[in-house]
Design brief:
The complex is a heterodimer of chains A (96) and B (654).
Chain A: H1 2-8, E1 10-17, H2 34-43, E2 54-59, E3 65-71, H3 72-79, E4 84-89, E5 92-95
Antiparallel strand pairs in A: 1-3, 1-4, 2-3
Chain B: H1 4-7, H2 16-19, E1 27-32, H3 68-71, E2 76-81, H4 84-90, H5 110-119, E3 123-128, E4 131-136, E5 144-149, E6 151-152, E7 154-156, H6 157-170, E8 174-177, E9 179-180, H7 191-201, E10 205-209, E11 228-233, E12 237-238, E13 240-245, E14 250-254, E15 267-271, H8 287-290, E16 294-297, H9 304-313, E17 318-321, E18 340-342, H10 345-357, E19 362-367, E20 371-372, E21 380-381, E22 401-404, E23 408-411, E24 430-433, H11 436-453, H12 459-468, E25 481-482, H13 491-494, H14 501-504, E26 509-510, H15 515-524, H16 529-533, E27 558-561, E28 569-577, E29 584-591, E30 596-601, E31 604-607, E32 613-622, E33 632-640, E34 645-653
Parallel strand pairs in B: 1-5, 1-8, 2-5, 8-10, 10-11, 11-22, 15-16, 16-17, 17-18, 21-25, 27-34
Antiparallel strand pairs in B: 3-4, 6-7, 12-20, 13-14, 13-19, 15-19, 23-24, 26-28, 28-32, 29-31, 29-33, 30-32, 33-34
Helix pairs in contact in B: 5-11, 6-7
Classes of the chains: A alpha+beta (96), B alpha/beta (654).
Chain lengths: 96, 654
C-alpha cells in the first residue's frame, strides 16, 4: 500500500541522543560508525531491521548523536525510544 | 576584496589590523564548497607568517585530486570534506557530477570565493578581466583557513553538522557558514543552530549569512541569538553599462562583460517575448527574429547569464536584462558571455514602452568598466538581502549587522567559468559575486581580528562590539538606503548597522552572554526537557530559577512586540565596561520609535574598578494618543561616556 511504501522509504535522518545513553566514541569521532550501529541494533527490533540502517556520522562535539539512513518506520521507532531526544529528517540547505 | 579593506577602513598602519597582527593566531573554519588553491595566491602562505597556532589539531586530507602536501601550508591549514549526507538525501535522484571531486577541492567556486574573502593573503593586480582591479586581500589577511567542504549541489544538514563537529574538534576559533535553510526552523530542529550552539559554548564565533530572499518581510534565516547573522550591502564601486536607445534615452545598467564592445552604431532592439521567449530561454528564441539584434529579456526562471547565453545561441548581438519589481533600484551584475546590461525594473519598463512605440527600435550599450566614487551613496542595502523580523523569535532583532556583499571580487575555482555556465570555456582566478554569502566571510574575518586583539572576549562580546559600534548613515550623511525601496532602510534590513572594525575594537561597553544565558532563553521559549537536552542535557526548565522572558536575553539590540492588548514591554540588560578607563559614567540617549514612549532606568551607569558591570531596564510603552499606522516603528538607545558611543537599534512590532 502507499502507506507501506512511505514507511519503508529510506531517508537520511539526524538523531539526537541523550548524552547519558550515548556510546563513548573513539578518537576517529565522526567516522566511527560502529558504536552507534550497536546503539541502533539495541533499539530497533530485528524484524524492522530490513533494510539495515546505516550510520553515516557519529557526532560528539557539535551534537550528541548520529546521522543514519533509516526507513520512516525505523525513524519513528527510534523517536519513541527514551534515549533518543529528537529525530530530524536530513534536508538540503542552500548556499547564499 | 580589492576595495573592501579600504571601505571597511582597515589600514595596515593603524587601527584593528595592526593591533591584531592580521589575526595570525586565529583559525577560521569555512563550511562551504571546498577550496581551489592551485595557482591561487590568496591561499599562499606569506613567509613572514608565524607557524599556525599549536592548539589547532586539524589538517588536510589528501586524495588523487587534492594534493594536501602541495596545497596546504601555513595559510591553508585544513581541508576536509563530508558527503555521506548529500548522497543519502539525493540517492536515486542525482548522479555524481562529472566535474565534482570527492575531495576538498572546490569545483563550484563559491567556497574559494568565501574563504579568500575571509582571510585571503594579499595579491597584487587581481581583477576579473580588468574589472575591480587592485590588491586583493581578505578581511583577516594573516588568519589561517581551514576548509570543511559540506556543500555539493546543496548542503545536506548531516554533512553541515559533520563539518561543525570536525571544526570544533580541530580547534578553529571562528566558523563562517554562508548557507541556510529556505525557512527558519525551530532551533532544536535546525542542525546548523545546534552545531553553532555547541561551537559558541566552546568560545568559537559563528558568523552566518542572513539569506538572499529579500526584500520580503521575515525572510531572514539563521536567527538563533548565538549566531552572528550578516546582511549584505553595497560598497562605493559600480560596473556601469549604459543602454542607449535610438531616441537618445540612456539607462544605467550594470555588467561584467569583458569582450569586444558594441560600436556607436545602434542595433535593432527586440523584446524576447516577441521573439519566442520573454525570459530568453535557450532554444526558444527565434534566430531569424533575434540574429544581429539586442534582445530585452524579462527576469526570473533561468539564470541571468543563461539569458545572455540563450541570446548568443540564437545569434543575437546583445541583451538587456530587466529586474524584478521588488528589487527596486538594484540590478544584478554578472560576467556575461555577450554584451549584456542588467537594468532596473523601471528602466526595463521604459525600454519596453520605447519598443512598443517605435516602428524600428534600436539601441546600443556602452560599458564603462569600474567606477569608484561617492555617487550613488554607499553603503546601500541590497534588495536581495533577507529581512527581519524573525518569524521564529520576533523578540530577537535579526539580522545583526550588514557588511559588503555586492559585487565583491575574490578568488575563484579553476574548473568553473565566471558565468557558471557549462558552455562558457573561460577560466579565471578571480570572480565578482554578490550575496549574504559574500558579506558573511567579511564579518568572519573581522571577528578573527577581534578574537586576536581581544582574546578575553566571548563570542557574544565580539558580536556586541560589532553591533554597538556599527554605523547607520551613508557617505552622503543620510540613513543607509534600501535599494528595494529607494528610501531609508530599517533595522530589519541592516540590523544594528554597517560593521566598523576599528570602532569595534574599542566599544566601551559590551552586552555579554554565555551558554547559561542561551539556555535561559531556550527555556523562555518553552522548550520541553527533550528539546532542551539537544542543547544542554542536564537542564530542567521547570525547576530552573531566573528564567525570564525571551526578550530579556542580554542582546545588543531590542525588539518589542506589542500584543493585541498593547501592554508596555520591559526588557533588562547588563553591560560590562571594557573601555580603557575603569571609572566611567555612561548616559542614555533615546530615540523613541514612533508612537512609543521609551524609558530607561537608571539613565546613568557608573562604572568603577570594583563595579565593572551595570544593569538597566528599558520599557517600551505605547503612547495613549496618536495613531501609528505602520506595522513596525524603529528607534535606538545610545549609551555614551563622551568618548564611546554604544548604540542599539530598537524595533517595535505593533
Amino acid at each position: 500500500t502507499a502507506e507501506e511504501i512511505q514507511t519503508e522509504r529510506v531517508s537520511s535522518y539526524i538523531v539526537h541522543v541523550a548524552p547519558a545513553h550515548a556510546p563513548r566514541l573513539p578518537r576517529r569521532g565522526l567516522l566511527a560508525t560502529r558504536p552507534y550501529a550497536a546503539f541502533l541494533l539495541n533499539r530497533i527490533p530485528l524484524e524492522m531491521c530490513r533494510p539495515a540502517p546505516r550510520v553515516l556520522y557519529s557526532y560528539g562535539h557539535a551534537a550528541t548523536g548520529f546521522a543514519a539512513r533509516l526507513t520512516a518506520r525505523q525513524a519513528a521507532r527510534l523517536a519513541s525510544s527514551g534515549s533518543v531526544l529528537a529525530v530530524v529528517p536530513d534536508e538540503l540547505q542552500e548556499l547564499h | 576584496t580589492t576595495l573592501t579593506p579600504s571601505f571597511l577602513r582597515l589600514s595596515e598602519s593603524s587601527g584593528l589590523l595592526p593591533a591584531s597582527g592580521g589575526a595570525s593566531d586565529v583559525v577560521i573554519g569555512v563550511i562551504d564548497t571546498g577550496v581551489y588553491p592551485e595557482g591561487r595566491k590568496s591561499f599562499a602562505a606569506d613567509r613572514s607568517l608565524p607557524p599556525p597556532p599549536r592548539r589547532f589539531r586539524g589538517g588536510c586530507v589528501s586524495t588523487p585530486e587534492f594534493n594536501a602536501s602541495a596545497y596546504c601550508n601555513g595559510k591553508l591549514v585544513g581541508a576536509k570534506f563530508f558527503r555521506k549526507g548529500h548522497d543519502a538525501v539525493l540517492r536515486g535522484r542525482r548522479e555524481v557530477g562529472e566535474t565534482e571531486s570527492m575531495s576538498p577541492l572546490d569545483t563550484e567556486g563559491h567556497g574559494t570565493h568565501v574563504a579568500s574573502t575571509a582571510a585571503g593573503s594579499a595579491v597584487l593586480d587581481a581583477s576579473l578581466y580588468g574589472y575591480g582591479e587592485g590588491r586583493a586581500v581578505g578581511a583577516a589577511p594573516s588568519a589561517r583557513i581551514a576548509v570543511y567542504k559540506a556543500c555539493w549541489k546543496g548542503c545536506a544538514s548531516s554533512d553541515v553538522l559533520a563539518a561543525f563537529d570536525q571544526a570544533i574538534a580541530d580547534g578553529v576559533d571562528v566558523i563562517s557558514a554562508s548557507l541556510g535553510t529556505m525557512k527558519a526552523r525551530k532551533f532544536y530542529k535546525d542542525t546548523t543552530a545546534v552545531g553553532a550552539f555547541h561551537a559558541v559554548s566552546k568560545g568559537i564565533v559563528v558568523a552566518v549569512s542572513a539569506g538572499n530572499s529579500g526584500p520580503g518581510e521575515s525572510t531572514v534565516v539563521n536567527v538563533a541569538p548565538w549566531f552572528l547573522t550578516v546582511a549584505a550591502s553595497t560598497i562605493n564601486r559600480q560596473f556601469p553599462a549604459d543602454v542607449v536607445l535610438g531616441n537618445g534615452e540612456t539607462f544605467i545598467g550594470t555588467s561584467l562583460y569583458a569582450g569586444k564592445p558594441l560600436g556607436a552604431t545602434k542595433l535593432p532592439l527586440v523584446y524576447g517575448g516577441d521573439a519566442g521567449s520573454n525570459i530568453c530561454e535557450a532554444g526558444k528564441l527565434n534566430p531569424t527574429m533575434v540574429a544581429g539584434k539586442i534582445v530585452l529579456c524579462d527576469p526570473g526562471v533561468n539564470g541571468r547569464t543563461e539569458k545572455g547565453f540563450a541570446v548568443k545561441l540564437a545569434g543575437g548581438a546583445g541583451a538587456v536584462l530587466g529586474s524584478d519589481e521588488a528589487q527596486g533600484e538594484q540590478a544584478r551584475t554578472s560576467a556575461h558571455v555577450i554584451p549584456v546590461s542588467a537594468v532596473t525594473f523601471s528602466a526595463a519598463e521604459k525600454i519596453k514602452k520605447y519598443l512598443r512605440t517605435q516602428a524600428s527600435p534600436v539601441a546600443t550599450m556602452v560599458f564603462h568598466g569600474t567606477v569608484v566614487g561617492r555617487s550613488p551613496p554607499s553603503p546601500r542595502m541590497a534588495s536581495f538581502s533577507s529581512r527581519g523580523p524573525s518569524r521564529l523569535v520576533p523578540e530577537i532583532l535579526k539580522p545583526d549587522v550588514t557588511a559588503p556583499g555586492v559585487d565583491i571580487l575574490a578568488a575563484w575555482a579553476g574548473v568553473t567559468s565566471p558565468s557558471l555556465l557549462d558552455g562558457d570555456s573561460r577560466r579565471v582566478p578571480y570572480n565578482i559575486m554578490s550575496g549574504t554569502s559574500i558579506s558573511c566571510p567579511q564579518v568572519s574575518g573581522i571577528a578573527a581580528l577581534l578574537r586576536q586583539a581581544r582574546p578575553e572576549w566571548s563570542p557574544a562580546a565580539i558580536k556586541s562590539a560589532l553591533m554597538t559600534t556599527a554605523y547607520n548613515v551613508d557617505s552622503a550623511g543620510a540613513v543607509i538606503g534600501d535599494m528595494s525601496t529607494g528610501k531609508a532602510s530599517t533595522p530589519f534590513a541592516r540590523g544594528a548597522g554597517h560593521v566598523d572594525p576599528n570602532r569595534a575594537a574599542d566599544p566601551g561597553l559590551v552586552y555579554d552572554a554565555g551558554t547559561e544565558d542561551y539556555i535561559a532563553f531556550l527555556c523562555a521559549l518553552g522548550y520541553s526537557a527533550e528539546q532542551m537536552a539537544v542543547f544542554s542535557p542536564a537542564t530542567n526548565c521547570s525547576t530552573r530559577a531566573g528564567t525570564g522572558a525571551v526578550g530579556d536575553l542580554n542582546y545588543p539590540a531590542f525588539s518589542a512586540v506589542f500584543g493585541p492588548e498593547k501592554r508596555a514591554v520591559t526588557q533588562r540588560r547588563v553591560v560590562r565596561n571594557v573601555g580603557g578607563n575603569a571609572r566611567a559614567t555612561y548616559r542614555a540617549k533615546i530615540t523613541s520609535p514612533a508612537g512609543v514612549h521609551v524609558t530607561v532606568k537608571p539613565q546613568k551607569l557608573q562604572f568603577s574598578a570594583t563595579q565593572g558591570t551595570q544593569e538597566y531596564a528599558i520599557t517600551f510603552a505605547p503612547r495613549m494618543f496618536g495613531n501609528v499606522t505602520e506595522k513596525h516603528t524603529f528607534g535606538s538607545i545610545e549609551w555614551s561616556d563622551g568618548e564611546h558611543s554604544v548604540t542599539s537599534p530598537i524595533a517595535v512590532t505593533w
